[in-house]
Design brief:
Blueprint (H helix, E strand, L loop, with lengths): L17 H8 L6 E5 L5 H10 L4 E6 L2 H14 L4 E5 L13 E7 L10 H11 E12 L17 H8 L4 E8 L4 E8 L1
Parallel strand pairs: 1-2, 1-4, 2-3, 4-5
Antiparallel strand pairs: 5-7, 6-7
């Protein structure tokens, strides 16, 4: 049974400065990355193309059709560094402890139930190496443009700080990615 998450099939990749975003996500060409809530993999594929062989990008999403589309796209492009997996982000991640160098979540956190967010942060802390990076891309707290229609449903950098800090993350920087989006980068203590 295919569960289609709320915003399945939508991507914010065309609303961001991709060079700036990936500059703040990438930690090396021979690293392991994690795309949380990858959908059909627009961000995953863009990152995998930039990294090339020697890297690995895990791509997790609950949407089975999106994961299948990502697997097919990666195969067609010859991107053997992409490992798509169907996964519920509100449950434990089926990845080894300390196996990920950098993780990112692009305009997905606002759709995840608030009750599931602390558990995801705990799992993210578990799978990241010490000193690992977590980059959160979200919509600015505006009442217009793409993303949630109400600013109250959007996650600003301070909201993200309150969520990540109890799980051992320290904000490193906030980067403006365009008119509607920003990236907050955290380091795992």
């Amino acid at each position: 049974m295919d569960v289609k998450p709320k915003a399945a099939g939508k991507s914010s990749i065309n609303h961001i400065d991709q060079d700036l975003a990936f500059e703040n996500i990438m930690v090396g060409s021979r690293a392991t990355y994690l795309d949380l809530g990858c959908g059909a993999g627009n961000y995953t594929l863009a990152l995998a193309r930039r990294l090339g062989a020697g890297s690995l990008v895990y791509a997790l999403d609950l949407w089975e059709d999106g994961i299948a589309a990502l697997a097919e796209s990666a195969r067609e492009e010859g991107l053997g560094n992409v490992e798509p997996k169907v996964a519920d982000l509100s449950q434990p991640l089926h990845l080894p402890t300390g196996s990920v160098d950098a993780a990112f979540m692009a305009t997905v956190l606002h759709d995840l139930p608030e009750s599931a967010r602390p558990g995801l942060m705990e799992e993210l802390c578990r799978v990241l190496v010490p000193g690992g990076i977590f980059a959160l891309i979200e919509f600015k707290k505006f009442a217009q443009g793409p993303g949630p229609s109400s600013p109250d449903k959007r996650i600003g950098p301070e909201d993200a700080d309150r969520l990540t800090a109890p799980h051992g993350f320290v904000r490193d920087t906030v980067v403006d990615l365009g008119e509607f989006t920003y990236l907050a980068r955290y380091i795992k203590k």
